[in-house]
């Protein structure tokens, strides 16, 4: 096997991983702050892709879709937190999980009613079509673009969380929401924003993934399982873990596809099983009980 | 301290029920069987009755783990599907009779639940749901890729059992829907009796102790990991039995038997009926399938209705239909 092909596949894996990073980040931010797993996360990824599709069809511009769709779905996420999840705080952690799971069901069905059950192709804008010579081989521009967007988002997130007052409050709220309340911070508003942010990130992942995958109502199911695998490997609640594990899983899937295509999806679950055996808390997670 | 001491000394919940409740509890297995026996004559169709039986049993198995042990699994399709596939494959590929094929399915599902259980109980709480879902997806993709054996996306076909031979020259004609119903009900009844015994045993108290307070159960000297794993495997075996019966009933195994959808409906049925109650699973299965049956008459998007009903239950009736009924009756008696 020649080196060029392996390098190409490595880049493909990084682009795939970049999408996973977006989805897993949204999942892990919400978990870290609110302590709940959003089972509708995959469905909201799918809603993001369809929202992107719709906005692109209305405005004729992929760029509008890239900006408007994640924001709109993020607002939808805030409404979900406010009216469906907020009544459940204080109950067992299973309840919000079950609720979002039911919500995922409803979202998939709602999209089926609105857009039909068949998959819809969605192409990247002309400016991002084609390939570029990287010196070691030709590479699709769109995938490079995806990696670039994700890198920018990561940088923005890092700055927002580490360098601003808002980030300080978010991090403190994740540690101890009760103390934050005592200090006079409106924690419920904070949770609303964080949930919206998490949902917005996965929706952005959906828009970015749309030209690479077929857009269909069922696309969220596999993504949800992938996001779970990534968060388990990286460590639940760890942002760094989500980034490293997302790229790792992307590359692992893509490299396996080169040598044994039928094993591509299976390998990531194997990777998760391995992590569970040797390091149950994940690569960057705190040990249970700590 | 042995398990027996503890169960006798300090049961988890007070087990003294009002008189009627106590009778209901003592006769729960015969009562359930009696209701199941008349189901084909009460429900609009016999096909619906068979589904209530099979999915009810599936939900009973799931409820043992979720309702009684407190572990929420989103991957129980793996056991249902494995039971179904192995039964079908044993008949179609190996030429087994129906009974050895059933045993193959149940044993296979149990072995799989040992592996998945051992891996997933290393994690707790919310992690557990994610890991079980992911591992079940792994099984799904393995079945999809091994299409030479499983039929891949088309599902497994070609293993119709027309007649089930019993000991002593008797046989059950499975082409007769009613005979098939009671044939399947026999196994469901056995499973119910078994579950009832398990719940009444010291082990039954132990799993509820783990659900109520894991740390305290551990401090009392229980091997929490072993208790969880045993509950997981019993649950997996029961779901495997349900899968086995579904394969014999349908004579095909769709790939979806292993899919997320199958894992999901068992969660919904349990929540609708009432987690952690003996009658809940069958009530939940019945209500879910009735909604599906009625709603699919006038819309293909019945899942939307099921999803909304489910959300309303989580919000306003988290104990489910049966669990809430019990609560209301108890409150009436207390006042």
Automatic annotation (TrEMBL), chain A:
Record keywords: Amino-acid transport, Cell membrane, Membrane, Transmembrane, Transmembrane helix, Transport
Topology of this chain in the membrane: Multi-pass membrane protein
Subcellular location: Cell membrane
Residues annotated as transmembrane: 6-29, 36-56, 62-85, 97-115, 141-161, 190-210, 222-251, 258-278
Main location: membrane
Family: Belongs to the binding-protein-dependent transport system permease family. LivHM subfamily.
Protein name stated in the entry: Branched-chain amino acid ABC transporter permease
Source organism: Xanthobacter aminoxidans
Lineage: Bacteria, Pseudomonadati, Pseudomonadota, Alphaproteobacteria, Hyphomicrobiales
């Amino acid at each position: 096997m020649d080196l060029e092909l392996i390098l190409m596949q490595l880049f493909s894996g990084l682009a795939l991983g970049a999408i996973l990073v977006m989805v897993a980040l949204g999942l892990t931010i919400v978990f870290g702050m609110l302590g709940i797993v959003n089972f509708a996360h995959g469905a909201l990824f799918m809603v993001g892709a369809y929202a992107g599709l719709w906005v692109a069809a209305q405005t004729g511009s992929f760029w509008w879709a890239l900006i408007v769709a994640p924001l709109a779905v993020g607002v939808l996420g805030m409404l979900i937190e406010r009216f469906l999840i907020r009544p459940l705080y204080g109950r067992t952690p299973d309840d919000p999980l079950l609720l979002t799971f039911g919500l995922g069901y409803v979202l998939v069905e709602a999209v089926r009613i609105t857009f039909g059950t068949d998959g819809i192709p969605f192409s990247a804008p002309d400016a991002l079509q084609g390939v570029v010579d990287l010196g070691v081989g030709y590479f699709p521009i769109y995938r490079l673009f995806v990696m670039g967007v994700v890198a920018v988002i990561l940088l923005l997130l890092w700055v927002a969380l580490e360098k601003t007052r808002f980030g300080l409050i978010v991090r403190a709220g994740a540690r101890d929401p009760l103390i934050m309340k005592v200090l006079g911070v409106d924690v419920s508003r904070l949770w609303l924003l964080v949930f919206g942010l998490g949902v917005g990130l996965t929706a952005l992942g959906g828009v970015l993934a749309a030209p690479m995958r077929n857009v269909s109502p069922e696309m969220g199911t596999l993504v949800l399982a992938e996001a779970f695998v990534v968060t388990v490997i990286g460590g639940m609640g760890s942002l760094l873990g989500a980034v490293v594990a997302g790229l790792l899983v992307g590359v692992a899937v893509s490299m396996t596809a080169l040598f044994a295509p039928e094993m591509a999806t299976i390998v990531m679950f194997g990777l998760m099983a391995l992590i569970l055996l040797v390091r149950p808390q994940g690569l960057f997670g705190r040990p249970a009980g700590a | 301290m042995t398990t027996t001491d503890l169960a006798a000394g300090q049961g988890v919940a007070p087990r003294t029920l009002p008189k009627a409740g106590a009778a209901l509890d003592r006769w729960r297995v015969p009562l359930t069987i009696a209701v199941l026996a008349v189901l084909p004559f009460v429900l609009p169709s016999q096909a619906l009755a068979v589904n209530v039986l099979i999915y009810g049993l599936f939900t009973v198995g799931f409820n043992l783990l979720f309702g009684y042990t407190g572990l929420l699994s989103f991957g129980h399709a793996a056991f249902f599907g494995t039971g179904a596939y192995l039964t079908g494959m044993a008949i179609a590929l190996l030429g087994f009779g129906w009974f050895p094929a059933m045993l193959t399915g149940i044993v296979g599902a149990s072995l799989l639940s040992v592996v998945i259980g051992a891996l997933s109980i290393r994690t707790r709480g919310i992690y557990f749901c994610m890991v079980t879902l992911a591992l079940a997806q792994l099984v799904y993709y393995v079945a999809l890729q091994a299409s030479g054996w499983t039929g891949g996306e088309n599902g497994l076909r070609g293993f119709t059992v027309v007649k089930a031979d019993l000991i002593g020259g008797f046989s059950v004609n499975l082409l007769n829907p009613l005979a098939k119903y009671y044939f399947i009900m026999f196994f469901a009844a056995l499973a119910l009796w078994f579950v009832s015994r398990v719940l009444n045993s010291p082990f039954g108290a132990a799993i509820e102790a783990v659900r109520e307070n894991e740390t305290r159960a551990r401090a009392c000297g229980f091997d929490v990991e072993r208790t969880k794993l045993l509950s997981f495997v019993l649950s997996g075996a029961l779901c495997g039995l349900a899968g086995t019966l579904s394969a014999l009933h349908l004579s095909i195994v769709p790939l979806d038997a292993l899919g997320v959808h199958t894992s999901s409906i068992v969660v919904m049925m349990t929540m609708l009926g009432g987690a952690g109650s003996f009658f809940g699973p069958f009530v939940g299965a019945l209500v879910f399938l009735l909604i599906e049956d009625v709603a699919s008459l006038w819309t293909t998007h019945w899942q939307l209705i099921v999803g909304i009903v489910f959300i309303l239950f989580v919000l306003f009736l988290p104990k489910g239909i049966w669990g809430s009924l019990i609560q209301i009756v108890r409150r009436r008696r207390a006042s």
